[in-house]
Amino acid sequence: MNRKEVLDSVRGNVENKNLVKHMLATEAIMRALARRLGGDEEEWGFTGLLHDIDGELTEGDMSSHSKLGADLVRELGASEAMAHAILCHNPVHGVPCETSLDKALFCADPLTGLITAAALVRPDKKLAGLEARSVIKRFKEKGFAAGADREQISSCRELGLELGEFIELGLKAMKGIAGDLGL
Questions:
Q1: Which CATH superfamily is domain 3-181 in?
Q2: Which of 13, 34, 123, 173 could covalently link to 44 via disulfide, CB atoms 3.0 to 4.6 Å apart?
Q3: How far apart are CA 94 and CA 79, in angstroms?
Q4: Domain range annotation of the chain
Q5: How far is CA 148 from CA 78, 123, 139, 176, in A?
Q6: pTM value?
Q7: pLDDT tens, 18-71?
Q8: Do 44 and 86 contact (CB within 8 A), yes or no?
Q9: pLDDT at 92
Q10: Distance of alpha carbon 50 from its chain centroid, rounded?
């Protein structure tokens, strides 16, 4: 597997540009987490990029989302570790996060939505001027970006990261690909 093949697979299965941007943002955060935690940057990045590959195919059916995704990534040649992380990132299945890769994807996935929403309420709608403290403030507002599961994001502590440093790491990673995200 190389990034071009992975990206081609994503684009072949996902038409929604915002979903693709979410997957790119998750990849960026996963790569940053791999660097921070000593994981395999390519494996962690590809896991983030592929994690919602079945998002449109399952048509929002959370009971099949990520089960199909895990099968699809196996067919693409992904490792069993990647497939497991993709499977357990959807809490509906009750599959426990066991490895650092599993835990990283689980907490990174909703963080992208929180950071994106925090950027979109800014006058310029850009990540460039957004600061981690603003995202943390928004994190505390339960009604803000309500779909960004705060418990899931807070599970970063299982990786040995405090919430503030995790948000800062995620924001920096997303700023690094702001052009790709349109932010």
A1: Hypothetical protein af1432 (1.10.3210.10)
A2: 34
A3: 21
A4: 3-181
A5: 27, 21, 9, 21
A6: 0.98
A7: 999 999 999 999 999 999 999 999 999 999 999 999 999 999 899 999 999 999
A8: no
A9: 94
A10: 9
